Amino acid sequence: IFSLSATAQNRDIVAEKYSDTYMTSITEATQRLAASREAGKLQKRIAADNPETFAGLYIEHTPEFQIVVLFTKDPQRNLAKYTQSKLYSAKIAPRSLELLLAVQEEVGEQLSRSGVRYESGIDIRKSEVELHVLDAGRARDVLTKILSAVDFIKINETTGFPQTTALVERS
């Protein structure tokens, strides 16, 4: 019979790793991780209530832990409707997350229809749609119309994409 000591059973490996990474106590790490989970729940509520002005949320771990919530207008007033916690800070952003997601989807559809392989993401801090493509020139040609209409799509050329590998267990 294999038995772990009570200390080993109660270890929070994630909090330990966070504590090591950001040089905090285990208690502080545990509190920050709990605050991060709460921020995720709050993000969903704010996004649902304010799709036209909510611009995203991100967490800064250094130099000070804070949860940054972005709005396209009245950031402090908008955040105050949801929390008074000093862990949160409200900032202005040029575009809503809803707009960024819509542009990301449209760009993806155009590239897919043209057979251009790509990966995309949204940089919340910069309020930009990021694309990674094998041939930036071809991607720009395909996206000429949308690129002339918006200035927040960043195209990065890459040499390849990660390959997904299936692991198969053999008996």
How would the blueprint of this fold be written?
Layout: H1 6-9, H2 13-22, H3 26-49, E1 54-60, E2 66-71, H4 75-80, E3 88-92, H5 97-113, E4 118-123, E5 128-133, H6 136-142, H7 144-149, E6 153-157
Parallel strand pairs: 2-3, 5-6
Antiparallel strand pairs: 1-2, 4-5
What does this protein look like?
The protein has 171 residues and is an alpha/beta fold. The chain contains 7 helices and 6 strands. The chain has helices at 6-9, 13-22, 26-49, 75-80, 97-113, 136-142, 144-149, and strands at 54-60, 66-71, 88-92, 118-123, 128-133, 153-157. It is globular and about 50 Å long. Helix content is 43%, strand content 20%. The strands form 2 sheets. The protein has a 3-stranded mixed β-sheet. A 3-stranded mixed β-sheet has the order 4-5-6, with helices on one face. A hairpin with a 4-residue loop joins strand 4 and strand 5. Helix 2 (13-22) crosses helix 3. It starts with 5 loop residues before the first helix and ends in a 14-residue tail after the last strand.
